[in-house]
Amino acid sequence: MKRQKRDKLTRAHAKGYQAGISGRSKENCPFQANDARSHWLGGWREAVADRQIGLSVR
User: What is the tens place of the pLDDT at every residue in 41-55?
Assistant: First the structure.
């Protein structure tokens, strides 16, 4: 069970990172559950920081 839960949270983080790298707003978070939302926002913040230092996905 823990493996599935961790995979969902990892996926939420990755989706948040992709949203942040592409310039989407954090208001577009598709998750309502606190855990998934927290991981999505963490990925989004990480991507925004990466964009500010010049990293981008093409």
Answer: 999 999 999 998 886
